[in-house]
Amino acid sequence: MTTAAIIVAAGRGTRAGGDQPKQWRVLAGRRVIDWSVALFHGTAGIDLTVVVLHPDDLDLYTPPPGVMVTTGGASRDASVRCGLSALEGAGVTRVLIHDVARPCTPPAVIAAVLAALDKAPAAAPGLPVTDALWRAEDGTVTGLQPRDGLYRAQTPQGFAYAALLAAHRAHQGPAADDVEVARAAGIGVVITPGHEDNLKITTPEDFARAERILTGQGTGMDIRLGNGYDVHRFGPGDHVMLCGVRVPHGRGLVGHSDADVGMHAVTDAIYGALAMGDIGRHFPPSDPQWKGAASHIFLRHAVKLAQENGFMISNIDCTLVCEYPKIGPHAAAMQAAMAAIMGLSGDRISVKATTSERLGFTGREEGIAALATATLVKP
Ligand SMILES: Nc1ccn([C@@H]2O[C@H](COP(=O)(O)OP(=O)(O)OP(=O)(O)O)[C@@H](O)[C@H]2O)c(=O)n1
Ligand SMILES: C[C@](O)(CO)[C@H](O)COP(=O)(O)O
């Protein structure tokens, strides 16, 4: 079984506007064509990739090693025929045809088409129409169009190679896509799951949406990661505050506030994920009102800032670095204390510890260090 992908890229992109066809525009740091080729070239299940270019564009494209280039025709179906012909004699058994203008296709969409081709001669992704459909004239609704059984067609569309080549050669007149050509030749086409992110860049507005998807923001989720690091030195005292828990110890930690080094690292991780500075910026040590302050004030502030900016805290991971006190016996209480302050369930907070093998300032028991990571999600 040899599977090829044909990427049709010979269109002029007239509806998308701009001073060059849409496949040459840069989105999220890469040209549209490069995103689309990368969906297939070097991907498991795809053995060969062919890019079909307009004759005027040949100089614009240096194919990655292993990618074939051929020239297209005056219409999409003519370009597909050029791509299919270029593969003759290459031993190809299955072929996927993809629009270069769909650079955001989720891998699962491609995988579903390939899987369906194991059992059917043709398969293509589609999305059921969910909105009501109107008929209209001059901007006024003239009637309703039943949407039952209607799908929005996407690519890649997959076929047994020889059957599609024969279907294209026999086809008379234009065709919207290869499913139309295959059906005209009596080939049944299975519908596989499409995806909203699999948009075809058609109009100028589509570029911004495609860019959001390609930068990971089009999933509807904005995911941020922040880290925090803090150190406090030991001084006189009979306990230390660590992650909201009073832990008996022969010495205390020195600081402007209660010196809860773990909670400070967690707080800074949240500020970091929000790109909103650190504790020192929000609670300056020069301000006497924070002298001896309980550190949950800082953590609550960071959590509130996250909420005000539309983020929920997905998880926190905090590591305390010290020889003593031993953290293990208190870790569960620390998790519970921070979960209560942050309004999270305990399984989203991790508190763990390590020694530094007696090396460095923590190894010499001069102080305690803490590192933390926070993941914030805006749904
Ligand atoms: N002669 C053509 C026409 C279209 N296509 C390709 O077919 C796909 C779908 O077509 P469409 O979105 O309509 O692209 P364009 O034809 O470039 O756009 P427009 O119709 O706005 O000019 C695109 O990947 C396009 O490059 C092609 O290879 N050869
Ligand atoms: C093949 C196709 O992408 C299916 O949706 C589409 O038909 C091609 O684009 P066009 O805008 O119809 O030319």
Topology record:
Elements (H helix, E strand, L loop, with lengths): L2 E7 L16 E2 L2 E2 H7 L9 E6 L13 E5 L4 H11 L7 E6 L7 H11 L4 E7 L4 E5 L2 E6 L5 E3 L3 E4 H10 L7 H7 L5 E4 L12 H9 L7 E14 L3 E4 L2 E4 L3 E2 L7 H14 L4 H4 L13 H13 L3 E10 L9 H12 L6 E6 L5 H4 L3 E12 L1
Parallel strand pairs: 1-4, 1-6, 4-5, 7-12, 17-18
Antiparallel strand pairs: 2-3, 6-11, 7-10, 7-11, 8-9, 13-16, 13-19, 14-15, 17-19
Helix pairs in contact: 2-4, 4-5, 7-9
EC number: 2.7.7.60, 4.6.1.12
Cofactor: a divalent metal cation
Catalytic activity: 2-C-methyl-D-erythritol 4-phosphate + CTP + H(+) = 4-CDP-2-C-methyl-D-erythritol + diphosphate; 4-CDP-2-C-methyl-D-erythritol 2-phosphate = 2-C-methyl-D-erythritol 2,4-cyclic diphosphate + CMP
